[in-house]
Specification:
0% strand; mainly alpha; 72% helix
Length: 162
C-alpha cells in the first residue's frame, strides 16, 4: 500500500471515528523511502547524471516535506482525546477570563479618559464623525474643502472609511 493509498484510507475512515482512532492510524502510517543512488552505468552518461540530479533535488524536497509532515503529526497528534479535552477546558477558562479582563479594562479606561478630559487617537476619529454628523456643520465644512486627507488611512477601519 502506498502512502497515498494509506492517506485515502484514513480519509475515508474520518467520518464517525474518534480522535484516538484517527491519531493511532496517522501515527502508524507506513514509512516510505526513496532511493536515488546512481549505478556505474548512469555515472558514465552525462544526460543520465543530469536526470539523476533532478531526481535527487525532487527527493530532497520530498524528504523535507516528510520532515515537515512528521513534525506536524508529532505536534498535532501529541495528545489523546482525553488530554485534548482537558487542554480545551483549561483554554476555555483562560479565554473567558481574558474576555472579562479586557471588557473591564475598556470600561475603566474609557471612564478614566472622561474623568481626566483626555482622548486617544480612536476617540479623535469618533469625535470628528460626530461633529460631521451635524448637518449645518457638515455643510460649512463641505463648502470650505474640496478634499480631506486622512493620514495613515486604513481601509480596514470602518470609521475612516465613513
Amino acid at each position: 500500500m502506498t502512502i497515498v493509498d494509506y492517506l485515502q484510507h484514513i480519509q475515508s475512515d474520518l467520518m464517525g471515528t474518534t480522535w484516538d482512532n484517527l491519531r493511532e492510524k496517522v501515527i502508524q502510517m507506513p514509512k516510505v523511502s526513496i532511493e536515488t543512488r546512481a549505478s556505474k552505468g548512469i555515472k558514465d552518461e552525462p544526460d543520465m547524471l543530469s536526470i539523476l540530479a533532478q531526481v535527487t533535488a525532487i527527493k530532497n524536497k520530498i524528504v523535507g516535506s516528510k520532515s515537515d509532515l512528521n513534525q506536524l503529526i508529532d505536534s498535532f497528534f501529541r495528545f489523546d482525546q482525553a488530554n485534548w479535552q482537558k487542554i480545551q477546558r483549561a483554554t476555555d477558562e483562560l479565554v473567558r477570563t481574558l474576555i472579562v479582563v479586557t471588557q473591564t479594562f475598556r470600561v475603566t479606561f474609557a471612564q478614566s479618559k472622561r474623568e481626566n478630559k483626555l482622548v486617544d487617537f480612536p476617540d479623535l476619529g469618533a469625535l470628528a464623525l460626530q461633529i460631521l454628523a451635524d448637518e449645518p456643520t457638515r455643510k460649512t465644512v463641505n463648502g470650505q474643502f474640496i478634499e480631506i486627507l486622512v493620514d495613515e488611512y486604513q481601509d480596514i477601519n470602518q470609521l475612516q472609511e465613513t
